[in-house]
Amino acid sequence: MKRLNWRGAVSIAAFILLWTLLARLKAPGFAEIPDPAEVSRAFWSKYLPSAAYWRSWAVSFERVGYGFILSQLLGIPLGLLLGTRRLFHEIVFPVVELLRPIPPLAWVPLSILFWPTAELSIVFITFIGPFFIIVINVHDAVRGIRKEHLWLARSLGASPVRIFRRIILPSVVPAIAVGMTLGIAVAWNVVIAAEMIASDAGLGRLTWEGYVSHTGTTVIIGMISIGLAGYLSTLIVTYVEKRMMPWQR
Amino acid sequence: MLAGYLGAAALWYACVAWVPLASFRRLPDPVAVVTEWLSPQPTYGISIFTEAYYKHILYSTWRASAAFAAATLLGVPLGVCIGWSRSFSGFASALLGMLRPVPPLAWVPLAILIFAGSEAAVIFVTFLVAFFATTLNTAVGVKSIDPDFFRAAACLGASRMDILLDVVLPGALPNIFTGLQIAMGAAWFSLAAGEMIAAQYGLGFLIMEAYNLIQFPTIVIAMATLGLLGYLSSALIRVLGNRLMRWREQSLGFAA
Amino acid sequence: MSGALSIRGVGKTYDPEGASVEALRDCSFEVRAEEFVAIVGPSGCGKSTLLNAIAGFDTVTAGQITLDGRLLAQPGLAPKPGPDRVVVFQHGALFPWKTVLENVTYGPLRQKALSREAARAKALELLRASGGLDSTAASYPAQLSSGMQRRVEIVRALMNDPPLLLLDEPFRAMDGFSKATMHQHLLDLHRRYRKTIVFITHDLDEAIYLADTVVVMTTRPGTVKEIIRVGLGRPRVPQMLYSRDYAELKRSAAQSVHEEARRAFERGEREQA
User: Fold this and answer.
1) CA distance C116 to chain A (A)
2) Can you list the domains of chain B with their CATH numbers?
3) In terms of Cα–Cα distance, which of B232, B222, B231 is closest to B195?
4) Which of A230, B104, B219, C24 could form a disulfide with C46 if both were Cys (CB 3.0 to 4.6 A apart)?
5) Cα–Cα distance measured from residue A151 to residue A143, given in angstroms and rounded to the nearest whole number
């Protein structure tokens, strides 16, 4: 039974208090910002029952879902190949290293040019971020496997397939877990920005429209929704990780 | 290694020039990009010889540096406090835990409203990203210091300030530098996005402008420049870290 | 300051998450000045808890600990470690980011007890006396073997001229050869510098060989089960390990220790590797 974190409660309360003060007193810059009470009222009355609002959730979630899952499906094998095949590594890794520092969002215009639909271009952007992360994580993990383990297995007559299943894969699973956690956060970050720039639907768009129309309430509700959505995805990913690694409590 | 680059470039060119898909046709080809980048009289106004190019680089670099510096100056001390003092950690971690899941770029609209101007807003959002990464890694670094070091320093007569300078900071330095590298990379990512959404000047802005004005080679030039700057700044931090932590290098040598 | 340590009725109960755990109960023994005391017991018996209380890293919930009549620990007293009882740690706590010389001179410099030059001179002298270690003064600890690191850590402690030296299973992770060398080295230091030494170990042989007195502790809650006076003469030499007196001592002590070990095992204590 955990003791209640009273300090945490204190700081959160202080935060809300500060927010309320700044908004009520119309402090510089806060002229258009509603106080927490207004925000919760608006949420209950306007957003909760609004179908359009929940559709934004669905749209954003869908994009993140596709982009993220795709990035893992393609990224994990690529990372494994890069870690195990020396020739492949020599040729492909430098290209990966070159492309990796390019911010995912910088791909937006090329993506829009290339993909026939706006939806595909957004999914692509969402894919890029987690993709590089997982490739690097898996690659580093494979590289980190102690040579002695591999030599031992080979000298005991294990086939490459067995070595893969019994040694390489289990060593890589924790790195995949870390990569997934980082990746999902990046995916959300990217999708809502992409929505702000180049879409007409989704939570990012919602927040942006709040800005454009100078409706502080919408902006804040948008942000909180995005935060919640991101948090939910992280919970899902964590659950999957726990299933992947039952030996870790 | 060279083979990889050449292969990738060749593939790119081949796709753009020969693959009969409309999608590929729309992309700029590598030759056009490189020619444009290196040309003294670029068709679209941006090359290594034009002033405008460096102006954008300067804007982006200034914003990234300012945000990063602020994040380090605030994040490291805060991280140290969180990692060292359990009561402080109680106060701070709940609040940070609540704010952290919000993707940094979601702050952009709010930041623009509050800061009444895109410059400060973009720097703020970039700062946020770097700040969270720095604080978290610093706190982890401090928490992971073996308690025996604190005890040893205490029985040798060290004051709290001594412990801070002799145990906490050196002990957490490896994690701090990892955090700084991550923060730098994240800062550039965030900055690019912020500039694309809401700024004047800067490489992110350049990308959007080039897209809107149908100057496609410039798009790639800006992307590559962003990548390069991000990589160089992270490398700079790594080198600095290695110099400060020379004692780690030693441990990779041979025990007597 | 002669180093007479008194442990009277010391108890330690702590509660992580509300489940009360009694680590120590009514521990009492006296240590004369310049005596070498070894504390032996099964894993989890509270030896380290006792050491932490003596060193000032943690509080006690019952009893009293005094050094030369000065109060070190008592319920309600805030713990305060100090250079009068320096600890040498089990896994080694030389600062990896400081050179050997910086590590060793750390105490006197921080306490402003010696000038920089005096500290350096004393350090080099002590290092040389510990087997020519002055040549490593500019190296980092990671470049030294574990035996050398231990010796440097002991020098770091001695630099503060503490009346009491506390060692927490310092040779546990070492191989037989290194351990034997370290034993002779420690005995040599004890003879030369006349410090009171409290030495924690789980190794009965080590305890009997090194100490004047062996305190056998029970399993949790730890209390003093038996106090054995080691009558072997000094200086100790390895041949003594094969003498009849030694065998006698070992036999009677072993019975005590094995009883407790079995009790701990049956309790489900996991032996730490």
Assistant:
1) 44
2) 29-244 (1.10.3720.10)
3) B222
4) C24
5) 14
**Residue C18 with chain A: CB contacts under 8 Å:** 1
Q: Which residue has the higher pLDDT, A211 or C213?
A: C213
Does C17 contact chain A (CB < 8 Å)? yes
DSSP symbol at C222: B
CATH topology for the A39-244 domain: MetI-like fold (1.10.3720)
- For the segment B58-70, what is each residue's pLDDT rounded down to a tens digit? 999 999 999 999 9
Residue with tokens 């945000």: B67
Q: Write down the residue that tokens 């690694």 correspond to.
A: A245
Distance, CA of A98 to CA of B152 (rounded, Å) = 46
C61-104: per-residue pLDDT in tens? Answer: 999 999 998 899 999 888 899 999 999 998 889 999 999 999 99
Cβ-defined contact of B193 to A193 (cutoff 8 Å): yes
- Asked if residue C49 lies in contact with residue C24, where contact means CB atoms within 8 angstroms, the answer is yes
Which residues does B100 contact at the CB level (< 8 Å), separation at least 6? B132
The reply to whether residue B105 touches residue A196, judged by beta carbons under 8 angstroms, is: yes
Instruction: Return d(Cα A63, Cα A72) in angstroms, integer.
Output: 14
Taking CA–CA distances from C18, the nearest residue in chain A reads A1
ipTM: 0.89
User: Domain locations in chain A?
Assistant: 39-244
Of B5, B109, B223, the CB nearest to A208: B109
Question: Is the entire prediction scored with pTM above 0.90?
Answer: no
State which amino acid sits at residue B246. Answer: R
* One-letter identity of residue C53: A
Beta bridge partners of A202: none
Residue of A5, A94, A227 lying closest to B5 (CB–CB):
A94
Q: Do B196 and A193 touch (CB under 8 A)?
A: yes
Report pLDDT digits (tens) over A203-241: 888 888 888 888 888 888 888 889 889 889 988 998 888
pLDDT tens column, A35-44: 888 888 888 8
Burial label for B176, CB within 10 Å (0-12, 13-18, 19+), is: buried
| C73 interaction partners in chain B (CB closer than 8 Å) | none
